[in-house]
Design brief:
With 104 residues, the protein is of the alpha+beta class. It has a three-stranded antiparallel β-sheet. The chain has one domain. The longest helix is centred in the middle third of the chain and has 13 residues. The protein starts with a strand and ends in an 18-residue tail after the last strand. The protein is flat, with a radius of gyration of 18 Å. Helix 1 crosses helix 2.
């Protein structure tokens, strides 16, 4: 089963969106909890601690994408399928239908 986790960064009027797709065992699987466990284990390694320290004691979703080895995800029952970073976003209620008039 696939789950999508999305992080949104707002800097004034600028917005950046990072979406990651995870393969998880079932609908009830808590991907945030799985990530916390995998990242915590990784940050206890020499390489993980370097990344954690470099990021001033932080390890966010972008760091998961760029630095978290696959084996730590697999240990907790999930895998990263895909990642998309974009500066484009829309309002949920954005309509893509132009004025079609009365001739339907």
């Amino acid at each position: 089963m696939l789950k999508i986790l999305t992080a949104i960064e707002r800097d004034g009027l600028d917005v950046r969106v990072l979406s990651m797709v995870f393969d998880v065992p079932n609908k009830e699987f808590d991907i945030q909890e799985g990530l916390r466990k995998a990242v915590t284990d990784y940050c206890k390694t020499e390489e993980g601690r370097k990344t954690y320290d470099y990021n001033c004691g932080n390890f966010n979703l972008a760091d998961v994408d760029s630095s978290l080895p696959k084996m730590f995800c697999e240990k907790y029952g999930f895998s990263i399928v895909d990642t998309v970073i974009t500066d484009d976003y829309i309002d949920w209620d954005e309509s893509f239908c132009e004025n079609i008039g009365e001739d339907v």
